[in-house]
Amino acid sequence: MNYLIYFLIILIVPILAQLKVKSTFAKYSKVDSTSRMTGAEVARKILDDNGLFSVQVVETEGYLSDHYDPRSKVVRLSTDNYYGTSVSGTAVAAHEVGHALQDSQDYAFLRFRHSLVPVASFSSNLSWIFVMIGLLTSASNMLLIGIILLSAGVLFQFVTLPVEFNASSRALKQIKNLHIVSSEENVYAKRVLDAAALTYVAAAAVAVAELLRLVLIYTGINNRDE
């Protein structure tokens, strides 16, 4: 019964976070910004105002597929946000430019997260092999290796939080100072970005919960073998 509740939680929490993002984004997608600037124009204005003339802004396919590519120095905005003039699109575009600003200023957490990407990707995929062997055979040493490898992925999730919160903070400051949105619209933009942040918080919470569950299983196996 406890395991059923656990699995329901790790499934429901991310789903609820995603629903919150989509509903909030959809709500403020119907509200045009005072400036009537498209997401592409918003991104370009913030970049230029901060001297990042070489960073490109391009359209990309997909729904809420917006992101900043630090390798090619490109802000990629989904079609709706690239051409749209809504508060939601403005917030998302400014957020992605926030990452470009972090990159240009060598923001420590962004650099740390970039360095963790290959490690977290490799260890997270490999960890479950050891975890499954440990669980199926009750081999605590194998399970421990899996836990250690999985910890890299959990660390990545935690480092992501300050990176995303900081990018949102930069975004809100920029669109307000550049008069892209009104004071009221800035509040709406914050709601959009806060909802998006919930997905990262949910992912971190689920990762920690899974890690703690495995640690408890590992402890139980060791206690049983003593």
Short description:
This protein is mainly α and 226 residues long.
Q: Tell me the distance between the termini.
A: 27 Å
Helix-strand string: HHEEEHHHHH
Number of domains: 1
Instruction: Please state roughly what percent of the residues sit in beta strands, choosing from under 5%, 5-15%, 15-25%, 25-35%, 35-45% or over 45%.
Output: 5-15%
Q: Which of globular, elongated, flat, extended, rod-shaped describes the shape?
A: elongated
> With helices defined by DSSP (H or I, 4 residues minimum), what is the helix count?
7
Largest sheet: 3 strands, mixed
Whole-angstrom Rg:
21 Å
Organism: Gottfriedia endophytica
InterPro entries: Zn_peptidase_2
Transmembrane segments: 116-136, 143-163, 197-221
Protein name: Zinc metallopeptidase
Would you kindly provide a written description of the structure presented here, covering whatever features stand out?
By secondary structure, the protein is mainly alpha-helical. The chain has one domain. Helix content is about 75%, strand content about 5%. It contains seven helices and three strands. The protein has a three-stranded mixed β-sheet with strand order 1-3-2. A hairpin with a 4-residue loop joins strand 2 (about 65-70) and strand 3 (about 75-80). The radius of gyration is 21 Å and the shape is elongated. The two termini are about 25 Å apart.
